[in-house]
Amino acid sequence: MKLSVRVRSDGQDHRRSKRIKVFKSADLLVNGVRSRSHILNVSVTGAMVHTPTSVLVGSMIRICVAGLDRHGVVVWKDGSKFGLRFNRLIALPQIHALQVENGQI
After folding, report:
1. Are 59 and 105 spatial neighbours (Cβ–Cβ below 8 Å)?
2. What's the pLDDT tens digit per position in 46-92?
3. Is residue 7 in some structural domain?
4. Which end of the chain is more exposed for a tag (fewer CB within 10 A), N or C?
5. How far apart are CA 95 and CA 89, in angstroms?
6. Are 23 and 103 within 8 A, CB to CB?
7. In the chain, how many domains are there?
8. Residue 26: which domain range?
9. Percent of the chain topping pLDDT 90
10. Does residue 5 lie within any of the structural domains?
11. Quick check: is 65 in a domain?
C-alpha cells in the first residue's frame, strides 16, 4: 500500500521540510529484529529508507546511522522503500555531517 501526499495537483512539492539526498547504510530495528538498510534522503523531520525487511505503515522503527539514532513511524510504503517520520527533529548540522561523511559536500 502506498500512502503519500508529496505532490499536490498543482505539481508542487509541499513537504514540511527540504529533503537532502544521501545514500548511507543504516541499521534498522523493526519489532526487535535488526536489518541492514539504506537511507536515500533525509530531512529534519524524516527520511526515505530502502530495506529488504518487510515493514507496515504505522510501524514504529529505530534507525541508526553514523552516530544518529532516531525512532520514528512508517508513514508510507512503496515496495522496498518507505517514509519514516522521526519522533523528534534532527538538527541540520547532523544532516550535513551525513553528507560530509558520504563525500557529498
Report:
1. no
2. 999 999 988 999 999 999 988 789 999 999 999 999 999 999 998 88
3. no
4. N
5. 11
6. no
7. 1
8. 20-90
9. 50
10. no
11. yes
Q: How far apart are the C-alpha atoms of 91 and 24, rounded to whole Å?
A: 17
Contact of 95 with 44, CB cutoff 8 Å: yes
Whether 7 has a pLDDT exceeding 90, the answer reads no
Helix and strand counts by DSSP (H, E) for the chain: 1, 6
Residue 78, CA distances (Å) to 42, 68, 99, 103, 105 in order: 17, 24, 25, 28, 29
Q: Output 65 or 100, whichever has higher pLDDT.
A: 65
- Is the torsion defined by CA of 81, 82, 83, 88 positive or negative? negative
Residue 84 maps to which CATH number? 2.40.10.220
DSSP state of 2: -
Q: Cell numbers of 82, please?
A: 518507505
Which residue is associated with the grid cell 541508526?
Answer: 64
pLDDT at site 97: 78
Predicted local distance difference test score (pLDDT) of residue 102: 58
